[in-house]
Amino acid sequence: MTDRRLTPDPALITEKTTAQIATPVCDLRRSPAGPRDRQLLFGEIVTVLNTTDGWTYVQADKDGYCGFVQTTAISAADAATHRVSAPATHVYAEPNIKSPDQTSLSFGSLLCVTATTGNFAETSAGFVPLTHLAPQGTYASDPAAVAALFLGTPYLWGGNSRWGIDCSGLVQAALLACGIPCPADSDIQSAICNPAVGPYQRNDLIFWKGHVAIVSDPDTILHANGHSMSVAYEPLTAAINRIAAQGEGSVTAHRRF
């Protein structure tokens, strides 16, 4: 059986055109106006497969996920030169912190920088502080440190941004920022990881049914969770006991990329 998340519906394919996300964040939906499966960020590349009645069926370049986005959320693709490496950034009308801020972008958003003025990068969206950007092709080395950038971010089912993120979205953001390919949902993440041998160590992944956490140190995990409704640290043993007491089962897998 094919996985609808990763396999485009052949009955819906009428074209294959490269485009990009043109809004700070947009929902990738299971059906037009249907439930959110994931989210896509500004500048992320998609393949347009079909457009009907204001909804566009796409497949995301970063992880192969398929779904529907509002047609107004996409535009012609630019060649991204940089990504947002700060938890979030503002986009200004001019290269001046006192100029009007036009929008905000989350960690991981992609931009095509066409020029620099002082401490600002000029992009199609406006001016972005250079200190909040990293060149495409440069990567972080510590997924747990990347995940910590999201501390305090509100929990959001299917979320992928600084405005709201869930457990698997946090893991994906952390690993992609380190140049490690990563799917978007915890069941697929668990399936492609290597079984871990020995004690828990930093950057291991711990899975429960429907949940994943990153190991910060042998006694502590970092995860987006519905208990605190945020991205937070939690003692490992306490988390294992709490999740079991809630009737959500025991740890199902200990994995290592």
UniProtKB/TrEMBL annotation:
Protein's UniProt keywords contain Glycosyltransferase: no
Highest taxon listed in the record's lineage: Bacteria
Keywords linked to the UniProt accession: Hydrolase, Protease, Thiol protease
GO terms, molecular function: cysteine-type peptidase activity
PROSITE patterns listed in its UniProt record: NLPC_P60
Ranges where the NlpC/P60 domain occurs: 137-257
GO term, biological process aspect, one: proteolysis
Similarity field: Belongs to the peptidase C40 family.
Name of the protein in question: NlpC/P60 family protein
